[in-house]
């Protein structure tokens, strides 16, 4: 009772004042944090996972999400949420390209779910990069630096041989690039060991300058989790063979040394040429991946990566993380643990996946299914879908549907 005004009628007035103030604060907070009236109604858990030990200094919460929701259709959602993260590797100079990708990803999907982001770089991110990203995301962002040992030559690599390898491939895209090789090796063997990712089970890889062309009205992470799916792709294509001259030989050596690691059944049929027994160059395009971090952290994946890394093909040739992840998925997963995200409209450089209209209302898309690479025979997706005639997507039906449009 030491405070004089804590007596009626002052107590009543104070109570009223506090109520008004609280209501004001509540509306101000909601107005700035939640981007659309529809999203305020969604029963999605907005909790943001706490950062792992030691990651706190690298972490910066996004405070000013500016995205406003477009005209999203009715959203099918549940309270369920996966322990998942959006992962990006980028350079400072790619800030505006990344902003473009993330604005679309937020508008199409994440403004309803607020999944966190982990963004990694081999150099520290500058303030401009962070400001650019923070301005467009609705999830928490952690910026991480890649340890030197994950982005440099291991001691057993012969630098002269590596230089000769780059010269040999100089006429191929990124064939003469050293940094591209570090990037591919990092994405093959190290990103999932970064401490900022330690707490998560699933990741979705995103790149600068890609387009998400359809609304995504469900949670693909939960979709994966509920079906025990391990690897999700969106585009499958043939690799440039000169970049992986000895990758298949080296993979066969691994399988011979470690038959215990190869699953039965597996998906090797998809990557092996029936006539010759060679690698047919099919791979999932890893610039889009929704997958299990535990798969990559598994003993067998680690053993496979170590085997490849010792052989040196990341530097002597130009092994990409896409064929490496794909061969791993083929050896370690059953076909029904791999999912084709046909319904996610996605464009990366010249290739795109545009839904065929079987599962997605194309009015909510900004792409032309006739331009989609996945229904074309020179893509590797038809072969993948034919492996399992009971799969959700039947290539013949998909093609027929596109032809009718
Ligand atoms: N920090 C960092 N990121 C890189 C570097 N090189 C590539 N990346 C990132 O790694 C990913 C793949 O690189 P890209 O250059 O897109 O390679 P790509 O997809 O094979 O080829 P593009 O057709 O050019 O897109 C992207 O997210 C890039 O931002 C690098 O030297 N440093
Ligand atoms: Mg790219």
Attribute tags:
13 strands; 35% helix; disordered N terminus; eight-stranded mixed sheet; Spore Coat Polysaccharide Biosynthesis Protein SpsA, Chain A; binds magnesium ion; alpha/beta; membrane; 405 residues; globular; three-stranded antiparallel sheet; binds guanosine-5'-triphosphate
Q: Overview of this structure, please?
A:
The protein is of the alpha/beta class and 405 residues long. It has a domain at 228-405: Spore Coat Polysaccharide Biosynthesis Protein SpsA, Chain A, CATH 3.90.550.10. It is 35% helix and 12% strand. The chain contains 14 helices and 13 strands. An eight-stranded mixed β-sheet has the order 1-4-3-2-5-10-7-11. Strands 6-12-13 form a three-stranded antiparallel β-sheet. Strands 8-9 form a two-stranded antiparallel sheet. Strand 2 (84-89), helix 3 and strand 3 form a beta-alpha-beta unit. Helix 3 packs parallel to helix 4, helix 6 runs parallel beside helix 12 (321-332) and helix 8 packs across helix 10. The model is unreliable at 1-76 (pLDDT under 50). It binds guanosine-5'-triphosphate and magnesium ion (MG). Magnesium ion binds at residues 207, 287, 348. Residues 89-91, 94, 121-122, 179-180, 183, 207-208, 287, 349 line the site of guanosine-5'-triphosphate.
């Amino acid at each position: 009772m030491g405070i004089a005004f804590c007596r009626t009628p002052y107590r009543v007035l104070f109570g009223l004042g506090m109520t008004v103030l609280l209501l004001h604060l509540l509306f101000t907070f909601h107005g700035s944090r939640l981007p659309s009236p529809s999203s305020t109604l969604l029963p999605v858990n907005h909790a943001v996972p706490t950062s792992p030990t030691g990651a706190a200094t690298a972490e910066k919460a996004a405070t000013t999400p500016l995205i406003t929701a477009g005209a999203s259709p009715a959203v099918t959602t549940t309270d369920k949420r996966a322990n998942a993260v959006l992962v990006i590797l980028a350079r400072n100079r790619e800030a505006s390209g990344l902003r473009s990708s993330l604005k679309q990803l937020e508008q199409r999907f994440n403004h309803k779910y607020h999944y966190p982001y982990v963004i990694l770089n081999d150099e520290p991110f500058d303030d401009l990069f962070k400001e650019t990203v923070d301005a467009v995301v609705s999830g928490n962002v952690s910026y991480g630096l890649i340890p030197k040992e994950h982005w440099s030559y291991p001691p057993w690599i012969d630098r002269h041989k590596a230089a000769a390898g780059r010269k040999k491939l100089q006429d191929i895209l990124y064939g003469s690039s050293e940094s591209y090789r570090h990037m591919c090796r990092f994405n093959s063997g190290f990103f999932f060991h970064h401490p900022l990712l330690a707490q998560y089970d699933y990741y979705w890889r995103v790149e600068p300058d890609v387009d998400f062309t359809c609304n995504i009205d469900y949670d693909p992470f939960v979709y994966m989790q509920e079906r025990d799916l391990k690897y999700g792709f969106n585009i499958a294509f043939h690799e440039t063979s000169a970049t992986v001259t000895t990758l298949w030989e080296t993979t066969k050596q691994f399988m011979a040394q470690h038959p215990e690691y190869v699953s039965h059944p597996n998906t090797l049929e998809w990557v092996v040429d029936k006539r010759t027994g060679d690698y047919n160059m099919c791979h999932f395009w890893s610039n889009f991946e929704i997958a299990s971090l535990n798969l990559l952290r598994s003993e067998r994946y680690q053993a496979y990566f170590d085997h490849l890394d010792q052989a040196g093909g990341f530097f002597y040739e130009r092994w990409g993380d896409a064929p490496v992840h794909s061969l791993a998925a083929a050896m370690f997963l059953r076909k029904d643990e791999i999912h084709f995200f046909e319904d996610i409209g996605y464009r990366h450089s010249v290739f795109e996946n545009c839904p065929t209209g079987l599962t997605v209302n194309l009015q909510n898309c900004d792409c032309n299914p006739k331009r989609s690479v996945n229904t074309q025979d020179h893509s590797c997706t038809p072969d993948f879908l034919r492996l399992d005639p009971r799969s959700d997507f039947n290539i013949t039906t998909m093609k027929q549907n596109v032809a009718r449009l």
